[in-house]
Amino acid sequence: MSEKFDAIVVGAGPAGTSAAYTMAKAGLNVLLIERGEYPGAKNVMGGVLYRHQMEEMIPEFYKEAPVERPVVEQRFWMLGEDSVFTSGYKGLEWAKEPYNNFTVLRAKFDQWYASKAVEVGALLINETVVTECIVEDNRVIGVRTDRPDGDVYADVVVLADGVNSLLAKSLGFHKEFKPEEVALAVMEVINLPAEKIEDRFNLEPNQGTTIEIFGDATKGALGTGFIYTNKTSINIGVGTTLSGMIKLKLRPYDLLDYLKNHPIVRPLIGGGEPMEYAAHLIPEGGFHSMPKIVGNGVVVVGDAGQMVNSIHREGSNMAMTSGRLAAETIVLAKEANDFSANMLDTYRIRLLESFVGQDLKKYKDATHTFESYPQYFKEYIPMINQAASQFFTVDGIPKREKQKKIFKRLTEGKSKLGMVQDIYRAWKVMK
Ligand code: FAD
Q1: Cβ(114)–Cβ(22) under 8 Å?
Q2: Domain harbouring 41, CATH code
Q3: What's the pLDDT at 268?
């Protein structure tokens, strides 16, 4: 393996495959290296794939890609111990072409997506770990792999090796991420017949639902649970920041068990058979935690660059867009025969101008704020459930009196100023 390529991409997740696909399609000689047995073998995702960014890569991909169900409904749950306050949106326009989002199983989807990069000319090598970048004269000139004679050279290396990128770290692009900058998520895929899923979630065949769950799903820690419907299975998972887990002494497996056995959740998954179990980190630090993403002969894309919008659970789409923008810059760099950090910086600038940079900036203080003020998840969600229970109980109390009682109960033992401050703080980080 001592051939020289135009570009080497490390990692065949959505970021790496998007980069490899874009460059190979433009005629570059691209090597895509994946450590898993096949792309997707090691990849974990709750499962919502965003159509828009995927169609920027392959128009009408859904006609051939292994997608599960088009998502027609997004529900949000504020979970109490034996209650739930719900909101959401169901739109049947999302059940028709061109659809909105889809649930996917990454083991199938990533494999298909990487095969499209191969179709346009990328060379994919699986079961190969990149152990380090080869650096000469302050420039990345290739990578070392765990294969015998495993050094490979290229004009540019794209690091798409996912959260906690050891390769970017070894280049000095970032330090070890702190426990508050990453979440640990655990999930299960639970098999259920399609008809059961459709009955329980009020769906027609070929329609899907997503449920994001706040509050009791994480026992009040900053984080979320989720339930997504596939064709004949349900993905259920929960994630919290590592710092939250340490502080509250939570164990991820216990948390998932707790969610699965929650009286509101249990009927949705009851009788199903767990088929897969996975745990994975999610970069949650946002804009403030973004590492350096451009150097001489090297760029960083996707989770490796902390590009996840945890408020909207968007990650795969940011990964795809960053991979594409990096690749488009490399195509220009090839034309100019200039692979300096200066030239490749066009990628960073375009990324910051795109929805990726703008959304990461918009929510730049959200994780830190919600982590520092645990009352949002710990106190307000149970309060909202209590208030709803009182409000919807018909007990002969006139409505005005009831409202007053609810308000009094909600504010009992709380400073009104403190509550106003909490509302203002939340508005400020989310606006
Ligand atoms: P990854 O998908 O992690 O891909 C990295 C690839 O690099 C892997 O294939 C890995 O095997 C390979 N690799 C790593 N190191 C090496 C090496 N040294 N040599 C060779 N190969 C290597 N996002 C959404 O959009 N929607 C969701 O619903 C959603 N839910 C999520 C739920 C969970 C539980 C988790 C953990 C994440 C979720 N995300 C979601 C986030 C999303 O999964 C990521 O943002 C996305 O996968 C990032 O893509 P990536 O290509 O950057 O990294």
Answers
A1: no
A2: 3.50.50.60
A3: 98
Domain membership of residue 308 (yes or no) is: yes
SS3 207: coil
Give residue ranges with CB within 6 A of ligand 1: 10-16, 33-36, 39, 42-48, 129-130, 160-162, 185, 187, 237, 239, 280, 282, 302-304, 308, 313-317, 319
Ligand 1 probe mutation, 21, 22, 35, 356, most atoms within 8 A of CB: 35
Dig out the tokens for 34 from the structure.
Answer: 């994946």
Rounded-to-integer distance, Cα 300 and Cα 161, Å: 9
Say whether 203 sits in a helix, a strand or coil. coil
By the 8 A CB rule, do 165 and 44 touch?
A: no
Surface-to-core class of residue 113, CB atoms within 10 Å of its CB (0-12 exposed, 13-18 middle, 19+ buried): buried
Range list of β-strands (E), 160-248: 182-191, 208-215, 223-229, 233-241
What is the distance between the alpha carbons of residues 114 and 12, in angstroms, rounded to a whole number? Answer: 7
Predicted pLDDT at 20: 98
Q: Per this entry, what is the length of the chain?
A: 431
Q: How far apart are CA 172 and CA 88, in angstroms?
A: 43
Q: State the angle between helix axes of 355-362 and 341-353 in degrees (0 to 180), rounded to the nearest 10.
A: 60
DSSP state of 383: H
Q: pLDDT below 70 — which residues of the chain?
A: 1-2
**Domain interval for residue 387:** 367-430
* 203 close to 229: Cβ distance less than 8 angstroms: yes
Q: Domains in the chain: how many in total?
A: 2
Q: 0.90 cut: is pTM over it?
A: yes
> 100 alpha carbon to ligand 1 midpoint, in Å?
21
Q: Residue 78: inside a domain, yes or no?
A: no
**Residue 134 bridge partners (DSSP):** 142
pLDDT in tens, 328-359: 999 999 999 999 999 999 999 999 999 999 99
**ipTM for the predicted complex:** 0.99
